[in-house]
Amino acid sequence: MMYPVQTLLYYPGCSIKRDFIVVERTSKAVLEALGYKLVEINNWYCCGGFPGVTLSEHSKYVSSLRTLTMAQMQARELGTDTVVTLCPFCYNTLKQGEQLRSIKPDLYTRVASYLRDEFTPYQGGLRVVHFVELLYSKLSDLAKLSEGRLKGIRVAPYYGCMLLRPKSIALDNPDNPEIIERILRPLGAEPVKYPYRTYCCGSFHTLGEPEIVKRNTSKIASSITSSGASITVTPCPLCLYNLRVNTNLRVLHLSEIVAYALNLRDFLDEESFKILSTLRGEI
Q: Containing H/E element for 94?
């Protein structure tokens, strides 16, 4: 099935490129199948982690505005206004950076003056979106391409924090998100709800205070197990890592289960393919 091609700028971020190659591979394959062409931003920088861990209010926006500036120049050449990210941390940081000019103009002016020696700072006009939002915009196409391939599989969506907080950048209702459930249903899956689906997994504390992550993921895992789900999916690579390392849950990235549903099996790694095939009774 062929779709009109829509060109998007792609911001990969550090962790995706370094530690989550399968997430990038399956995400790009899915988006290409849905009619998107991703063009990676030239000379992209680290997004800066995310604004919440930086003490200086102005310095936490330097990396995101520098990246948006580079994207702005390339976007004009490509005729697009959209930057897509796969990492919720990158989405959160770039989204807040993109809003800075209108929400905190004085702070924007200060950061822009710092960057002015390199190039003309970001002037606005770009749209920062996450992989999840692109999937949500193609629900009917997902249904046609998947042919209900995940029928009967009970899936627990785990959202984490960064796509929902703060509210100004949330891609769905922070208190009761539904967007991933709505993506899963056209694939034939049966999404289940449980109390801890937006509870923080512990995030970057896995590096310095792993006990926080163990405590949080234990609560999440207990909640998911009680829900009767066969598998857990998350759109966040860091959440994926924390849940895999600290629990006995079967956890996949959202892009992996969608790739399987769209019969893009060559892009999956062996373990993920085995998990999903087992759930379908193919092994």
A: helix 88-103
